[in-house]
Amino acid sequence: MIGYHRKDKKGKQVTRYACGGTLINRRYVVTAAHCHDDKRPTKSIAEVVIGDYDLSTNPDCEGGDGSQSCWKPVQRFSVFLPDVKVHEKWDPLKVVNEGYDIALIRLPRAAYTMNEVCEVSVLPICLPWGRLPNGETAKMPQGNFREKCFLF
After folding, report:
1. From the CB of residue 113, how many other CB atoms can be counted at a distance below 10 Å?
2. Are 105 and 84 in contact (CB under 8 A)?
3. 47-50 and 2-7 as β-strands: parallel, antiparallel, unpaired?
4. What whole-number distance in Å separates Cα of residue 26 and Cα of residue 113?
5. N or C: at which end does the chain have fewer Cβ atoms within 10 angstroms?
6. What is the tally of helices (H) and strands (E) in the chain?
7. Does residue 27 contact residue 107 with C-beta atoms inside 8 Å?
8. Average pLDDT score over residue span 45-55
9. If pLDDT is split at 50, 70 and 90, which confidence band does 5 have?
């Protein structure tokens, strides 16, 4: 989730979540360029939250019949203007015809994924397998995290 900071009526800083992103490796998240406006502080990306699907709980838990299992607490990353790179051809007035609605967020530290810590509900995006444009075949990474993490 992509978070934005603003002040409430009492002057207290609050975070609003209004965009999403996808982890592409342990240090980078890809999102839409329209999710970031570096000229408007309340529209400038200030936080990335990874591994959360229910904002009302931390950690997220499943099962209510006494066999409740929980993931590790979510990972929060503070993001500053230099951490967000918007595509150089992004233009909100030309997005319909030209596109380029993409931005990259560099996290201040590596995120933990299921490959490092089993109880973390995070994995980078899986790209399609099969024939690549250069004619080679993309193959599934070796190793089975499911066997390692989900033996009951």
Report:
1. 19
2. yes
3. antiparallel
4. 7
5. C
6. 2, 12
7. yes
8. 86
9. very high
What is the total residue count of the chain?
152
Question: What token pair was written down for 69?
Answer: 């299992």
- Mean pLDDT in the chain? 83
State if pTM tops 0.85: no
- In the chain, the amino acid numbered 49 is V
Average pLDDT over residues 122-137: 75
26, HSE (Cβ side, Cα atoms, 13 Å): 10
Q: What percent of the chain has pLDDT over 70?
A: 84
Looking at the predicted structure, is the pLDDT value of residue 120 above 90? Answer: no
Tokens read off for 88: 């150089």
| 3-state DSSP percent of the chain in helix, strand and coil, to 5 | 10, 30, 60
Which tokens is 138 given?
């993309």
Q: Distance (Å, rounded) from C-alpha 45 to C-alpha 112?
A: 21
Has residue 143 got a pLDDT over 70? Answer: no
